[in-house]
Amino acid sequence: GEETWEKLRVQAGVQDTFLTFEVYKDEITMQLIDKACKMLDVPPDMVLKQFGEYFFEFCKRSGYDHMLRTLGGNLCEFIENLDALHSYLSLSYQEMNAPSFRVEKNKDGSMHLHYYSDRRGLFHIVPGIIGAAALDFFNTEISMEIVNQTEEEERTGKKEHVVFLVTQKPIFSYKKRNKFSSSSQYLDDSQKQIEKQLNKETMNKIRDRTNLASVCPVKRSHWETIRGVVTLGKGKLLRGFDPVYPKTLWIDTKTLCNGLPFHIVFDEELRVKQAGVSIQKIVPGLQTMGIRLDHYFSIVHPEVTFTIYSVQKFINSQFVFQTRREMMPQSWRQRPMLELRGQMIWMESLQCMLYLCSPLLRTLHELEERQMHIADIAPHDVTRDLILLNQKRLAEMEISNQLERKKEELRILSKHLEEEKKKTEVLLYAMLPKHVANQLKEGKRVEAGEFKECTILFSDVVTFTNICAQCEPIQIVLMLNAMYLRFDRLTTVHDVYKVETIGDAYMVVGGVPVPVSTHAERVANFALGMIIAAKEVKNPVSGNPIQIRVGIHTGPVLAGVVGEKMPRYCLFGDTVNIASRMESHGIPSKIHLSPKTASIPHQLFSTCLLPSMGAGSIPCQWSLLAMPPSSSGTPVNHHPQPPRPVSTCQLPEPCWWEERLVMGRWGWRRMDPLS
């Protein structure tokens, strides 16, 4: 699946996508195979065979189904024409480095498949491809066994030569067996009628050929039997076909050389005996009969040495010749060399080889580069049509390639856009609550909401004005940044919402925007963490740890988004004012609590009166420590030693408070300054 491929791709260190017309190194394939073997715990030959089967299905889905089906009427013909298919595909995929195949038939019906390739280590793909093609196209199961593996010495470019023994076993499904059985009955009746019409001599020929055909273990289907019956003469039906040849050749030499302008006849010593007029025009040296063909041409495909033995060995392959630059006329030496593609035909009676060929040209541009014209190619030669059709095909492929590249660029841009979008969301969620930010992204209006109870915290730095007056601005920025980074981490730990920072003031709320019942405890524990974290930040003037004041109040608020240019999530109500007053009238390194907030369990506090705007005087409390029980039930935090005996409450009217142990817990008791 996709997850396995992604894991395999990451381990192999290869890119995510591959373009159709792009050439990739075989090292990428071998890396993927190596990692796949380790992940799946299977041998490499099994992975390559499965890849071959998948590649065959991929080619069918890519539009080559009909092309593959028409390569041959049986498996042997199919394999023999694979080189011709690769030659045709090289017109479109010019950098394709395809393997080469050669088939040797055996008397027992099996065959030896010779595989040649200079791409080492990929020969296990062949059984997968050939096996899938045999099963799909010819309804035949095959077994392929490696009988030899060497480095071919005769070939100049191909390094790996593997010989497979291919054995075929036809498969007949239930439906096909029924169809064949019913058809065989029909054929039997028809054959009886045919036998009545045939004379005794013809019947003997049919019986002889039938006996010869029965030696082959591969059964012929009824369609092959029907194709073998042809009408000949006056209504007589004969099985097979015997060609008729004239007693004399009714074509003169001049007409042959003009009608086949690209052909060469050479003997066993590679000496030219005859050549077409167009090839003589391009290579004038061929007008001198008896010259050696290998002096003027080199073999490009198949990559064999230029000997009559090598040519006979690969006689079923398409041969591509290329002119040698040093033997061409002076006017041709600045042009690209001409390539010829065609087939070899051995003439046993003359002990000569006939090379029927055509110019190998892909586009009109290549035709112009060689200063040739369509008229130089014989009218019956399909190379004319191939050049014109391929010109259009190459233009379509270029458009397709550009679209594919644009698609890949868009995919990469989309991936980068998604990454930037995530960064933007992280930044946005740091400024606004997540659900509020999502509503704003969707273009919706965010309605103000009322929260019946929440806990608000304010803090500031003691003597911050004096510190600013004695320090450089950068020192203030570094100090506040160090402190706020620690506070921000605490908001994540205690799950409280940071509202804003103004100068040295830090505002936090619990229970907004997501209501929770433990908002007061969360803010109180956050406040205790602030006191400890602030001691880690140094005062740039004195070098001592800075001190902060903290004020907390619990009550109802109204929350909503204010502004469009730089929208902020703000809180409104008396709860905000009271929390701010609690902080401004606090004591350094102490937490000033309101009565509602004092309901937090395990909180030590003392009571005092604090004047509030529009609310008269309200009682307030000093928090000393919090002792939330751990999972084991024991306190996590504890007061290491009794606080100092006397502290001062900085209220508009100075009062004195004494810290002492009352009923098993430390608290504050008001003292008379005169006592």
UniProtKB/TrEMBL annotation:
GO terms for cellular component: guanylate cyclase complex, soluble. It is an enzyme of class 4 (lyase). Its main location: cytoplasm. One of its GO terms (biological process) is cGMP-mediated signaling. Its EC number is 4.6.1.2. One of its GO terms (molecular function) is guanylate cyclase activity. Pfam families: Guanylate_cyc (PF00211), HNOB (PF07700), HNOBA (PF07701). Keywords: cGMP biosynthesis, Coiled coil, Cytoplasm, GTP-binding, Lyase, Nucleotide-binding. It comes from the Eukaryota. Residues 455-583 form the Guanylate cyclase domain. It is found in: Cytoplasm. Residues 389-427 form a coiled coil. Belongs to the adenylyl cyclase class-4/guanylyl cyclase family. This is guanylate cyclase.
